[in-house]
Amino acid sequence: MSGDTCGVVTGAVLLIGLKYGTCDVNDRISKSRVYKCADIFIQKFQVRKSSTKCRELLGFDIKSYNHPGHDEIISRRCPEFVNTAMDIIEEIMRNEDGKIDQENKKETDAY
Questions:
Q1: Cβ proximity of 11 and 85 under 8 Å
Q2: What percentage of the chain's residues is helix, strand, coil (to nearest 5)?
Q3: Confidence class for position 62, pLDDT limits 50, 70, 90
Q4: For 72, how many CA atoms within 13 A lie in the half-sphere containing its CB?
Q5: Considering the chain, what is the average pLDDT of its residues?
Q6: From the centroid of its chain, how far is CA 85?
């Protein structure tokens, strides 16, 4: 734990990579989709929460266990960050899955 990027943000970007990524290093379409979705997520999270940095979101460095109210702040704030991230992820996935469905339909119709 370094206090830099919030774990919720890191987890959300990981989820995007798992959902839209690929093992094929030559698949530029998937790579582009992952980068675009991750950028969108980070931008939206920053707008809604004003930062993606743990220490800025919590108001203290998470490594400082002697901060007054440390546990209470984390217990109250972190679930709020998870809920925000889930709302953004759902929005991104609805949008991207809709695009993928349209792309697949176009390919199917072309045959």
A1: yes
A2: 75, 0, 25
A3: confident
A4: 4
A5: 88
A6: 6
Q: What does the angle CA 25 – CA 102 – CA 38 come to, to the nearest 5 degrees?
A: 45
Dist. CA 34–CA 15, nearest whole Å: 10
Three-state DSSP state, 3? coil
Give the helix/strand (H/E) hosting 5: none
Sign of the torsion formed by the C-alpha atoms of 28, 31, 33 and 36: negative
Q: Give the whole-angstrom CA distance, residue 33 versus residue 111.
A: 25
pTM comes to 0.85
Other Cβ atoms less than 10 A from the Cβ of 54: the count is 24
